[in-house]
Amino acid sequence: MPPEPVRFMVLGALRVCRGETELDVGGPQERAFLALLLTRAGQPVAVGEIVDVLWGAEPPRSAVNVVRRHVGSLRRLLEPGLPARAEGRWLIRDAGGYRLVTDADSADLPRFRALREAARHSGDTAPDRTVELLTEALELWHGPIGEGVPAPARSHPAFEAVERERRTAARELADAALRAGLPERALPPLRRAAADHPLDEPVHTGLLRLLAAAGHRTEALTAYETVRTRLAEELGIDPGPELRDAHDALAAHAAPHAQDTPAALPHVTPSQLPYDLPLFTGRRAELDEVLALFDAELPRPGTVVIGAVGGMAGVGKTTLAVHWAHRIADRFPDGQLYVNLRGFDPSGAVLEPGEAVRGFLDALGVPPERVPRGPDAQTALYRSLLAGRRVLVVLDNARDAAHVQPLLPGSPGCLTIVTSRDELPGLVAAHGARSLTLHPFDADQTRAFLVRRLGAARVAAEPRAAGEIGALCAGLPLALACVAARAAAHPHFRLADVAAELREAHGSLDAFARADASVDVSTVFSWSTNAVSPDAARLFRLLALHPGPDVTLPAAAALAGLPERRTRRLLAELTGLHLVAEHSPARYSFHDLLRAHAGELVHEHETETERETALDRLHHHYLHTAHAADRLLAPNSDPLPPPPAPEGARPEPLADDHRALAWLTAEHAVLLAVVATAAASGRPARERLACQLAWSLEPFFDRRGHWHDALTAQRTALDTARRLADPVLLARGLRGLARIEGRLGLHTRAVPRLEQALDLFTELGDDTGRAHTHRSLGWECDQRGDLPGALHHNQLALALFRALGDRAAQASVLNSVGWYHALLGEYRQALTHCHEALRMLQDLGDRYGQAATWDSIAYAHHHLGRHPHALLGYRNALALLRDLGVPYVEADILTRSGDTHLAMGDQGSAHEAWTQALALLRELGHPDAEAVETRLRGGEGRAGAC
């Protein structure tokens, strides 16, 4: 019997099918390895290139051996039963690397290229045929190449090269369709290509021309306005001549339709859908039902469409919703939003609607400073941003209808998919939602599920055992997935033995029990946890103590009190049996049911002392890492030193401020959860830790503009400090909350808190605390235009730092004093202070502080008319900044140096400096680019105003 054909897909989500069965490619590294082979389309890939894609600049010593293991795993996946060390027919050694043998019949990328080549040969003599071939080629694409592969891997040039081929084909199709008079035929693939490449002007030009030719002028005008806004906000440029010409041709026939979205805000296309499940199966009838229902609804222009997917825990609501969303995502060119509302999270960490709205505003590109303060105003802005746009919104795991109400779009054009264990009658009654309730799999669906995971032959060989497994799992997909994973990991196990083990297992999951449940679901979970090593089972239990939405390898190691290398192996055991999921590289989470089961087990198996010790290790892991990040981001701050970490609690190593920012960004949601749960623990030592963690996050929140989250954390810290009645904590809590209130413009609250904090620091004799509080009061004076007051508070801070002998803080505040002198027109005093600051900063080796001080010195010299001295200061600042890699500040100083050149009459040098600044700002997508463009077009520079 000939082997079943194998087909490879990489133009969109990475998929491999043998016959009608989709294969599970494996984890992130295995997927990246296969995707790289497929992008090379039958060409050999060097081992060094594979290592570079899988690990980047810091591969482990074992990298080559790991690559070999991936090679062996992939060969056995593609050819089950292949002898060890045999090459097989698909993956062979070639030219010192590996080559995947594919062609146009077995893989979509070679097929895409073959169709493009055929279209080129058809030439101008058969334009209809050219359109047909190019359309077929582009319809092979179902999203960005290798969708679901980790982003660092997809940044490799091989992936970008294939994306360029797609963009070129889209432009070729647009030209051919216009020549053939078939614009409507080419629109679907052009719309998808434009959605996946929102800043590619030639693709959007082709789309506009096709829309105009097909009579869709309103859509064309909207599309132009969208891409124009994106180019301006993200790149700081205007549309090029071809795109403008296409728009001008449209404008000659129709006027643009204004959108209700606030004009000053950027137009960002979010893409937040989780990975689609490669082995999705068993819900064909339900999927057909929702697809048919919404095919009928979506074309109606006045319809606000809501789909509600309900059902018991573990029945597959999220899986269906995400799969459905991926199937129809191309109909929503303005993006997809997704949030897990955690409505039934066993830890009680429900995501409130206000937090979800702020997350959506961030995804839609709203700068933090533009987010309104109140939840109603935030919801109004969110709905305004969606008005006139086609966005798919997935609200997963909602508690009830009230939980999702603020997240529903307010105008037609969007589709909202809601999942919940609640039946959501309020959504149906008040909003006309179309509901679908999922039920456990029936016998046929269960069999299909097991066939997809275990193979048809194995299930057919033991049909009775397969049926018994389905009955013991009550048809719940989550339970079936755990059992199938265990059986797949041991292909030599008889299914009858698996069923027997499952019958003998026992467990309890009372928190999720339902009157209509026909099985105790934890029976399956207990059976799965019994199948792993004792250490892996212990780690599974301890993970239930983690308060955040997911956990990293180092944090899991801290919980378990084990080395990371050992913990990595234990997590691999748990992921192998679907007890936890690695939803992104080195980040793990598990289903609510599994979390609840782990929560029951940890209270059964671990004593209270063991649980509390594990939590202490976890909290100290986060506090000590956050403290180290704080010292890197704000070396002049005055954090309280953390208490000694218990044995087994190791902070993550952070080499520099870039690593610190990356860690804080990744752990943002987790750190907020740790602050909240530690503050509510009722244990004074842990409550104190919550305060210190909140204060360690201040520099991060300030740099990233997460001021609403900072407000929550600082309020928690201040409330906790008051409850502990500790004046040291209270003074810091008042100052921390006041600082964030000031950032949010709540100055009438901030100033009294700072004054109260200053009094407390004075009573405590804490001169360092007093000095930093004076700096905060100086900033408040600056915000209300009181420059003399700002200077006075910084002078008081300077005197305190000098008395303390704190040279780092003294140097920083010296530059601030000099800067305020300069703003007050007291340039000579400014230079005196800034030169003193510069000498100290040079002794300290603080290069960023030196750059900022050279900028202040140059600013003062410019206004004294000493332009050559100003240029020298700017050059020194730029030399430091370029080495540090701070492009925005570099652009700011280049702009000022151009002003100085202009004041000297050197227009050529001014133009050169401004051009360099503009390039940096465009690369950053920063709005300051417009002011620099004005200079380059002949507008007055800053010098002209002086």
Strand arrangement, largest sheet? Answer: 8-9-10-7-11
Number of helices: 44
> What is the straight-line distance between the termini?
87 Å
Q: What spatial form do the alpha-carbon principal axes imply? A: globular
- DSSP strand content: 5-15%
User: What structural class do you assign from the helix and strand content?
Assistant: alpha/beta
What is the radius of gyration? 31 Å
Q: How would a crystallographer describe the biggest sheet?
A: 5 strands, parallel
* Average pLDDT taken over every residue: 82
Q: State the share of residues found in helices, binned by percent.
A: 55-70%
Number of strands: 14
Low-confidence stretches: 252-264, 299-303, 506-520, 939-946
What can you tell me about this protein's structure?
By secondary structure, the chain is α/β, with parallel strands linked by helices. Helix content is 62%, strand content 6%. The strands form 4 sheets. The chain has a 5-stranded parallel sheet, sandwiched between helices. A 3-stranded antiparallel sheet has the order 1-2-3, with no helix packed on it. It has a 3-stranded antiparallel sheet with strand order 4-6-5. Helix 25 packs across helix 26. The longest helix has 26 residues, at 608-633.
Describe the protein's topology:
Blueprint: E1 6-9, E2 15-18, E3 21-22, H1 28-39, E4 45-46, H2 47-55, H3 63-78, E5 91-94, E6 97-100, H4 108-122, H5 127-138, H6 151-154, H7 157-180, H8 183-196, H9 201-213, H10 217-235, H11 241-251, H12 284-297, E7 305-310, H13 317-328, E8 336-340, H14 353-363, H15 375-386, E9 392-398, H16 401-404, E10 415-420, H17 425-431, E11 434-437, H18 443-454, H19 456-461, H20 463-472, H21 477-489, H22 495-504, H23 522-530, H24 534-543, E12 551-552, H25 553-560, H26 564-576, E13 581-584, E14 587-589, H27 592-605, H28 608-633, H29 657-666, H30 668-679, H31 684-696, H32 698-704, H33 707-724, H34 727-743, H35 747-764, H36 767-783, H37 787-804, H38 807-823, H39 827-844, H40 847-863, H41 867-884, H42 887-903, H43 907-924, H44 929-936
Parallel strand pairs: 7-10, 7-11, 8-9, 9-10
Antiparallel strand pairs: 1-2, 2-3, 4-6, 5-6, 12-14, 13-14
